[in-house]
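Quick one before lunch.
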Amino acid sequence: MSEFHGTAIVNIGLLATPEGDRARSGKAQDELKKQRNAYLLSENGVITGIGTGMPPQKLLSKYLVIDAMGSLVTPGLVDAHTHLVFAGWRANELRLKTAGKSYLDILASGGGILSTVKDTRAAEESDLFDKAKEALDNMLALGTTACEAKSGYGLNLKDELKQLRVMKRLNEEHPADIVPTLMAAHAIPPEFAGNRRGYIDLIVNEIIPSAAQEGLAEFCDVFCEEGVFTVDESEEILLAGQRAGLMSKIHADEIRAIGGSELAGKIGAVSAEHLIAMKDSGIEALKSGGSIACLLPGTSLCLGKPYARARDLIASGVPVAVASDFNPGSCPGYSLQLCMNLASWQYRMTPEEVLCAVTLNAAAAVNRAKSIGSLEIGKQADAVIWDAEDLDFLCYRFGSNLARIIIKKGSLIK
Ligand code: NIG
Ligand code: FE
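Model of the fe (iii) ion complex:
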């Protein structure tokens, strides 16, 4: 790329992007900029120009020219919720779940998250890196140019930091951007069974301060759920995170509405995730707390649960993001394209709302809305050229990869 001044994407049939540097809500989530017959220029990985028609020939000779051949171009997708770094898979759970065993029953009997904890503790850091890198390569090929990643399969100081270091190295070596979240409060580890207070003390007094001091995490997350962490415990942990400089996220109302989304609003969490079982009071709390609702339709699919109340959230003015929740248990897949299909068919979101949910609102959910999530001058040049002419087609077709060309920080990836 060095002989070129920058990159020019030309012959864009339709450039579709949300605009702004914060999450969009209500009617504004449905309003995109749509420009036909467009081009996009970038230099040093940053967007420097957007126009209609062809850029001047003289200019083009200095750019690496990528021909979009009349197709749809959008911002790179942002996956705001993944559990990217783990060892092993849990294909054995498929039969258990289809035979009627619940997710929480599997966890309570020492399986589920705890079986991934066993595998992840036993894994070398380099093996975790290789496995996560392979997933990230595939995600990038599917159009995901940035993602959030949570720890939470270590559940002790050493192994939580091991997971976070894998994310740091991925961030340094992989073209995709990773936003790291500490989720030591994902389950009570077996050595603290019967002593949950002891584990919460470990999180608050050791794991959070270490992760924050080493600059290994930006967010702190808690699995606030019946039989996992209570609302009071979640509050204590998230506030300890905030004191250490970690912004809050919360797994709330995934299976039972015990007050997680109400807590999110109360403590000003950047986002509340899942929300499958959410009540009206949760919607009101998110609205008043300014939190983003991060919905995970792949998890509803794999847990056989209802789909979250996206329409009610949008109608109430809560910004909605949509993410994969990629993990070996409740959602063993990372295709944001599939999540876009599910958001369309099951959440009944419009294609415009869906695109905003997986770009700008997702970027806002990981505190990156100033630099990614839309195609605008000054933002990072992360874009996807799709095998689609418009957004409707992208949201409607499912099961094949429609991402034809990926551009990350102005560089051609695929
Ligand atoms: O978001 N709910 C908690 N955490 C994940 C599942 C993790 C797992 O099952 O390993 C989730 O669904
Ligand atoms: Fe999750």
